[in-house]
């Protein structure tokens, strides 16, 4: 009998038979062994078949996270595609997504590596999430690339302390189940709980976004925690990691490889690098072994072009993204998520920024990501969002919105003596001028306390931009001008 195809869920029965008592999923609510997980997955698959569920099934985000994973695995084990909604979506967004998801009947044929198994969601230009579809092979290939690149530590138990609606965390969860090492999840992120899990010695691999790691650093410093020597691999993605904190992270996890990887929901892995404080911010590393890169549209005067990716890990297509200008570009097997950058002589990829965010001032291009990295490197600044306001002479004038740093979870109040000294406008401009060309220095800055985030926990730059005043010397209810 031929071996069963490599499907995302296809190893569950093996682990149930070979290591049934081993932990598969652990959360605050309890745990499941592989022996307990496998029959629950099959029961869910059978229930979907009995009620003749459609080919795409929107998952119930109100369930506890372990049960959401059981339902996800049961959905794909039935040969269907699991559409993963976000618990934070308001009812109107959930209804709109439900309305545009396909309602085609399931054809009952056995799934293959090319069968769609997952519909995730990423931000759309209209504010409505757009769905992207993945087939099994795109993620089983991603699993293998991860293991081949990062070695034994990537096949150990994983802490993935985020929502399954974020593809990074869902990938970490499924990787732990694929390898048979198991996964620890959190319904709501807790730096204290994450550090306790890592310190117990059974979970050597951490998959995290930068904001979580910064909170863990703050918690560890505040509580004077000893180094966590049981961690062997930290995988960082989802947003730009502030590399000036890499030495702090390495001190907290002294035996860990600190890895940053660059990718997108539509592409999976693209490039990776060992984190180092001296690495220039735009460098995202060398491509993974199965990834080909092309930079198109660059000129001698403008060396950054659109980055195109070809690999076995790219997505199938979009669902509900017709005419969305933020959608990825397709050219045969090549995919471009509209990031601009270049390859250097060492074969490293530099990412300047997203095409849609590029600003032109004084006839020169500025990528907000570069200035944001410089501002966020200041010890008093936690987050920055850079924008352009219309200017008759410059085209646009560069402005920035800031959130002050709040160590150890303190409230951001003007009377908090634990906060680092806060610079004024001229001091921050001098900080930028020492690190950037003059035209990139912001002319005006505002402070925003209630930061705007997307559903995936990233800074919501469009929402912050909408809060800007029409004239740079004015204020708005949520923005205070920095003088």
Question: Outline of this structure?
Answer:
It is built from 12 helices and 26 strands. By secondary structure, it is α/β, with parallel strands linked by helices.
Describe this structure in words.
The protein is α/β, with parallel strands linked by helices. The protein contains 12 helices and 26 strands. It has helices spanning 12-18, 34-50, 65-77, 91-100, 136-150, 167-179, 191-199, 210-222, 246-252, 368-376, 425-433, 461-466; strands at 23-27, 30-33, 56-58, 81-83, 116-122, 130-135, 158-160, 183-185, 205-208, 233-236, 257-264, 268-274, 283-287, 292-296, 305-310, 317-319, 329-331, 334-336, 339-343, 349-354, 359-361, 364-366, 381-391, 395-404, 444-448, 479-481. The strands form 5 sheets. Strands 2-1-8-7-9-10-11-12-13-20-19-15-14 form a 13-stranded mixed sheet, with helices on both faces. Helix 1 packs antiparallel against helix 2, helix 2 crosses helix 3 and helix 7 packs across helix 8. The longest helix has 17 residues, at 34-50. The protein is globular and about 65 Å long.
Outline the fold blueprint:
Blueprint (H helix, E strand, L loop, with lengths): L11 H7 L4 E5 L2 E4 H17 L5 E3 L6 H13 L3 E3 L7 H10 L15 E7 L7 E6 H15 L7 E3 L6 H13 L3 E3 L5 H9 L5 E4 L1 H13 L10 E4 L9 H7 L4 E8 L3 E7 L8 E5 L4 E5 L8 E6 L6 E3 L9 E3 L2 E3 L2 E5 L5 E6 L4 E3 L2 E3 L1 H9 L4 E11 L3 E10 L20 H9 L10 E5 L12 H6 L12 E3 L2
Parallel strand pairs: 1-8, 3-4, 4-5, 7-8, 7-9, 9-10, 10-11, 24-25
Antiparallel strand pairs: 1-2, 5-6, 6-16, 11-12, 12-13, 13-20, 14-15, 15-19, 17-18, 19-20, 21-22, 23-24, 25-26
Helix pairs in contact: 1-2, 2-3, 7-8
